[in-house]
Amino acid sequence: xxxxxxxxxxxxxxxxxxxxxxxxxxxxxxxxxxxxxxxxxxxxxxxxxxxxxxxxxxxxxxxxxxxxxxxxxxxxxxxxxxxxxxxxxxxxxxxxxxxxxxxxxxxxxxxxxxxxxxxxxxxxxxxxxxxxxxxxxxxxxxxxxxxxxxxxxxxxxxxxxxxxxxxxxxxxxxxxxxxxxxxxxxxxxxxxxxxxxxxxxxxxxxxxxxxxxxxxxxxxxxxxxxxxxxxxxxxxxxxxxxxxxxxxxxxxxxxxxxxxxxxxxxxxxxxxxxxxxxxxxxxxxxxxxxxxxxxxxxxxxxxxxxxxxxxxxxxxxxxxxxxxxxxxxxxxxxxxxxxxxxxxxxxxxxxxxxxxxxxxxxxxxxxxxxxxxxxxxxxxxxxx
Length: 384
Fold this sequence. Notes:
This protein is an alpha/beta fold. Helix content is 34%, strand content 12%. It folds into two domains: 41-100; 116-360, Rossmann fold (3-Layer(aba) Sandwich). Helix 7 (234-244) links the parallel strand 5 and strand 6 (254-258). The radius of gyration is 23 Å and the shape is globular.
């Protein structure tokens, strides 16, 4: 089994240990089935297949039911072919989650979520909250907030992270937004990640995003006119979906996208580079995240942040999204920015701050009262 390495390069900051879209190729060795030596080869194969179908019942769903019905009504090679074919389809369809979602990377990510205090945020300046989604899933979130006297005067960033780790692994990045861009930051944990309930899947993540936006809209101390949505990598796809919905156009002041992709099928073709990939029909692709078809429906101002040295998501995908975006837009390219460390490049914070100031109607962010927060070092070690 080949697993993604988050420590192959000497990067010790929180962010780079938990990003993004690294494919996992898992080779399972089938277990042997102990049967009687008197059984024929066909009987043994049939028993093994029946046991396999039983174990993936929850995976294959309707496909498995069809296979079982075929078992009783058909025979010979047709039966064997149908069972194997439908089983493979079920495994292929549901196994895609293993290639995309990494809530357990790094280890203990599902049980240990660092608090903002580890990056210098005082306990009075953040809240650990749980939000109920429309389908009754509780998701975790961390709200970094400015002092009470200015909390309603500054923008709020709704932060959607990549496909690995948890919100605690993005604390340095969020703390920089909080302290240097002088804004509130709500870090949202997807279902199945960190301390959130449920299991991750595309439509579920969209519901998580909507619940988080509605939560901010209903907070009395947050200015609902100053909400900006930020998404990196997979989080960019979640952010685009949220911003593309007509019901949210008046709720989101601006959109910030960093190193995100056009769609998962496009990423599959880029990462695997196999001729077979392009022949896979879309109905077999479980997680699609069709950002390219949604970005034209985005009407609010959008900042595209692209690392020209992104080794995972081709920068050309960001260019395509930029060209198709339906709102006022700006592209900021960081020549030395890779997929995981573009946010550490010189000028990054200033780019975000200028965008926030321009579209929040605030020419200069009000200074916060109380103890100032020193910007955390981008090379801080991960708390474990």
